Amino acid sequence: MASANFMSPTHSATPTWPHFERKVDEVRPSKTDINCLVMDYLVTNGYPAAAKKFAVEANIQPKVDIELIQERVEIRTAIHSGDIQTAIEKINELNPEVLDENPSLHFALLRLQLVELIRSCTSTPEGDISPALEFATSQLAPRAPTNPQFLEDLERTLALLIFPTENLAPSLAPLLHPDLRKEIAIKVNEAILQSQGARKEARLRNLVKLRAWAEQKARESKKDIPEKLDIGLVGNNTSQNGASSDTVMTNNGDIDPMIS
Question: How many angstroms separate the CA atoms of 86 and 152, rounded?
Fold first, then answer.
């Protein structure tokens, strides 16, 4: 019966796995192609130390000057550490048009800077909130009326001054989570790459998303594939809808989870 083809992949008599693995082998990419994908990932996402090491081990030549990646690394490091003012200054030194031509990204950075000010001034009971209020008034308030989302984001951020950090509502808690820094850092990296005429996302991440999409479509069409297909990456943290969560890098990109 047809239902026999959908046995659990852990069953020793599963007929699906050998057939599926033969299909995979038929389209297996070359080692050179895989190395180029990994190098593209390291360069695009800004991991110069890992890219240099991988270039030597794989005996391939990067298509760009790895030293140029360092500027993006420094900006990312500043954002991850909460030093948003330094990040903005470095972005403007690199190319002021990155923020001039992207008001949403500029506002997101300024709002993150406000979050960091609020984090600092509310860290003690006697903290002075005036720096945060002054920054919101001078930097964010003039921009808020230009976009309804800006106004909503500003109002939500200022609410952090009212409620205790240990008991924030679900809509406010993410503002103080480190993931917000990571999210903005990714957007900044993509904007810089786009301004340089490069792809804003690594080919490897696009392939991972495409693979997840293909699996979803295959299951929706009731195709005969194994019950579970691991993506094959460390941590296997790619969701069914193709979204992925990269590990936050340390040591300015000296270590990359994909090749360590």
Answer: 26
In this structure, are residues 91 and 99 in contact, taking their beta carbons and an 8 Å threshold?
Answer: yes
3-state secondary structure 148-203: HHHHHHHHHHHHHHCCCHHHCCCCCHHHHCHHHHHHHHHHHHHHHHHHCCCCCCCH
| pTM attached to this predicted model | 0.66
- The predicted structure's pLDDT at residue 251: 38
CA 105 to each of CA 88, 91, 149, 229, 244: distance values in angstroms, whole numbers, following the listed order = 11, 12, 12, 36, 21
* Residue type, position 101, single letter: E
pLDDT at 56: 81
Instruction: Report the pLDDT averaged over residues 70-96.
Output: 95
Residue 4 binned pLDDT confidence (cut-offs 50, 70, 90): very low
Per DSSP, 251 falls in state G
- The count of residues in the chain is 260
From first CA to last CA, the distance across the chain in angstroms is 45
